Amino acid sequence: MSALLKIENVSKAYGGVVANRQVSLEVQSGDIAGLIGPNGSGKTTLFSSIVGAHPIDSGSIQFGGQEISKLDVPTIARRGLLRTFQQTRIYAEMNCVENMRISAPDARAPVLSLLSGFSRNVDVRAEELLDFVGLASKRFLRAGSLSFGQQKLLEFAMALMSEPKLLLLDEPTAGVNPTLINGLIDRLIKANKELGITLFVIEHNMRVIMNLAENITCLAHGEVLAQGTPQEVRDDPRVVEAYLGASA
Amino acid sequence: MLENLQLLFDYPTLGADLIANGLMIGAIFALAAFGMALVWGVLGIINIAQGEFVMLGGFVALTAAGLGVPPLATIPLAAIVLFMVGWGLYRLVIFRVVDRDLFVSLLATFGLSIILQQLSNEIFGADVRTLETGLGTLVLFDGQIVLAEIKLVSFVTALVVGLALWAFLKRARLGQAIRATSQNARAARILGIDTDRVYAATYALNAALCGAAGSLVVMAWTIHPYIGLPYTVRSFLVVIVAGLGNIAAVIAAGLGLGALENVAGFVLGAEYQIAFVFALMVIILVVRNFLLRRKREYLK
Amino acid sequence: MTDAQKYALVATGLLFSFVAPFLLPQFATQLTMLWLMVIFALTWDTLGGQMGYNSFGNILFFGIGAYGCAVIQRDLGLDYFAGLAVGLAFAAVLSAIVAIVLGAGMLGLRGHYFAIGTLGLGIAAGEIAGGWDYVGAGSGMVPPLYPVELAGRELFFYFLMFALALVTFLVLRALYATKFGLALNAIRDDEDKAEAMGLRTTQVKSLAWAVSAFFLGIGGGLAGNLLGFIDPRDVAFAGATFGVWMVLMAILGGKGTLWGPVIGAVVFHITQELFWTYLLGWQRVALGLLIVAIVVFFPNGILGTLRERFPEWFGEKVEERV
Ligand SMILES: Nc1ncnc2c1ncn2[C@@H]1O[C@H](COP(=O)(O)OP(=O)(O)O)[C@@H](O)[C@H]1O
Ligand SMILES: [Mg+2]
């Protein structure tokens, strides 16, 4: 196994607030990696730094062995590194099928090759994936009219549609109806095992991340507090304290 | 154009004269911009009818003077009348667009600006007008700088009015309610502030500011029904350069724009002065955006 | 409405468009202007409705087209029809190129910054044309006259403008049905998301503006010849009339739909021609009132409102799978 994503000593401050300090971690190809930490510990900030949404102050981010910390968002996305948003983002005025079509890899081509219709393969794939996340019957509805949980599923399906190598998921279960969470976990694992997409997941829910991830990094106050298997991290007294301290 | 530039180098005092005169009108730009920043910050609306308020202020002053009101006394009168106009427009239209898409408020105030412009054209006629105050001219430095006294009066008045409003925002109860609403309208509502009234007062205050500015414009320069849009654009320019919350920056940017515009008008020719203002706005928008983007996307 | 009914409606409309100038010869110029309005609304909506970039300055490309065509006609010394053909081609290409060059800076602006920035562009262009001797400065330009010995000037321009409107409509319809069309909608709904998904948003936006400018440029060239006089501020870069009407017509019919701008343009133009003569000097006041009324009370327009009432007409449906 090789490191698909390698982050070294990344720091990022918003004005005076240091959101990430000297963060280092690796995500191995084929893995499901987890990122946990109390609210405000800098998880979303780290994701934004990885995908190029803002410049980092120092450090290095390598994807597939290449430095990406100076590239912009679309370029990084086209290399196969994608993120979903904590505040779910879909194209609200378009229907589900259209959301899927525009997420296919061929939609990222230079503009002149966009001047053609949709290939049969794309439509078939879109149907399969909508079916996979359980939105098949909703496929001609406006995405904006879906419930929050359904929008999350759609966003996940769109991410799969674009065939990333590495997918960063920001709290995929937040706001999802608890009865649906187990189904969602199954789908994440399936996407990883069957589609071969490496996942890096921010998760607030400890039970979920323990069942999902093979490797976990815990952030607190922007710094790496602990790294290891779910057991190791869960049993680390500093992690316990960070979580208790934060919720107290 | 090049000859004019050459002229400026040959006679540097000519430049000083242009700049001095430009600074005078720059104070008016700052006043209107202050009002725009207020409305933008509190209601979240960019008021395209800003310049039409200035224009209306001018016509109010003209009309009042025609009825025998001494010219300088028309300044508060224009402010009061425009306050009422602003309040009325808020109650009729603006309150419906406060919480809506920015494009809606932009287009709605654009519609208002067309209405006011065309109404003025119908009522007052399309002629270029000015109001004689009977004040003289000031000759400084052996005639190197010639300045109409009314421009100086206008300059001082504009700054005094602006600073008075600023003090009002800091000290008075209504001023504090306005500031609280601009920081967080929901929280202000919870604290028992009637935000709808605050919005109305803010919009009306802005109109009053512009009205005062307009009465100064008609005395020190000229007005006609179609001068509104350039004033709106100047206000917008000053606000994007100076930001929403900083009165010193607004004054500096307003004065700077006035001086720059006057010099550019001389160098390029007066027929291109308006083109210069609009082009300058476009350039500043694009450059500013470019700098912001670079900060967002790349490492230093 | 069934598909058959829709086709019947469109066929009737087309038929009427062909015979209208013969049936109503006294209104030929107004009918020609109707097609210009359709072009205005359609091309505005490419950015404003489909892509969510509300331009207040698309009149810029109309003006560039009007002047570009007239300058070619004046300076190349060709006979009338050859000059007009070359002029129109030049107008189209020039406008599209200007759109791409300006787009590089302007299309990075979002929301109200774009709206006000484009407003500035349109007005600056009018002011520059009004001071520039090469294009007649404040007194404007008079394009060469249609050969007097030939009859049918009005029909000639009617059918040219009609053809342009038709081609614009068909090209846009085809474009909206491609991945490019979906990319426009994606940018409208959430540009940051589109970037995060790897779409080449900058290219998409530039092409959209260039297409819009291309057709507006031809429209400008034709309109200059039709009206016979190009005034910098009241015809070519007429922000307070044509420039606002574009926006208003698209909103009135329904932003972001294919037929909305067409419907909006027809309704607006007919209303204007029928009633506005009675308003004497007050048309422009009425226009302002109309803008306020429409954006405040009717922002979804005719088609948008229908869509809310009858979503199934627009293909929205829940499909249970078997
Ligand atoms: N755009 C921003 N501007 C300023 N501060 C921010 C911004 N985004 C996040 N922060 C601050 O950075 C810290 C980390 O935030 P975030 O990365 O969102 O944490 P998490 O996702 O772990 O909850 C917090 O203190 C937050 O207030
Ligand atoms: Mg977060």
Describe this structure in words.
- The complex is a heterotrimer of chains A (248), B (300) and C (322).
- With 248 residues, chain A is an alpha/beta fold.
- Chain A has helices at residues 43-51, 73-78, 96-101, 120-133, 148-161, 178-195, 206-212, 230-235, 237-247, and strands at residues 3-14, 17-28, 32-36, 58-63, 66-67, 81-83, 166-170, 198-202, 215-220, 223-228.
- Chain A is 37% helix and 25% strand.
- Chain A is globular, with a radius of gyration of 18 Å.
- The relative contact order of chain A is 0.18.
- Chain B is mainly α.
- Chain B is built from 12 helices and 2 strands.
- In chain B, a hairpin with a 4-residue loop joins strand 1 (137-140) and strand 2.
- Chain B starts with a helix and ends with a helix.
- By secondary structure, chain C is an all-alpha fold.
- Chain C has one domain.
- Chain C is 73% helix and 0% strand.
- The radius of gyration of chain C is 20 Å and the shape is globular.
- The A-C interface holds A 51, 53, 73-74, 77-78, 82-83, 85, 89-95, 98, 101-103, 106-112, 114-118, 131, 136-142, 158, 162 and C 175, 177-180, 182-183, 185-186, 188-190, 192-201, 203-204, 206-207, 256, 315-321.
Can you describe this structure in just a few lines?
The complex is a heterotrimer of chains A (248), B (300) and C (322). With 248 residues, chain A is α/β, with parallel strands linked by helices.
What are the SSEs and their pairings?
The complex is a heterotrimer of chains A (248), B (300) and C (322).
Chain A: E1 3-14, E2 17-28, E3 32-36, H1 43-51, E4 58-63, E5 66-67, H2 73-78, E6 81-83, H3 96-101, H4 120-133, H5 148-161, E7 166-170, H6 178-195, E8 198-202, H7 206-212, E9 215-220, E10 223-228, H8 230-235, H9 237-247
Parallel strand pairs in A: 3-8, 3-9, 6-7, 7-8
Antiparallel strand pairs in A: 1-2, 1-4, 4-5, 9-10
Helix pairs in contact in A: 4-5
Chain B: H1 2-10, H2 12-43, H3 50-66, H4 74-97, H5 102-124, E1 137-140, E2 145-148, H6 149-171, H7 173-183, H8 185-190, H9 195-220, H10 228-242, H11 247-268, H12 273-297
Antiparallel strand pairs in B: 1-2
Chain C: H1 3-23, H2 28-51, H3 59-75, H4 80-106, H5 111-129, H6 153-176, H7 179-189, H8 191-196, H9 201-227, H10 232-236, H11 239-253, H12 260-275, H13 283-297, H14 301-309
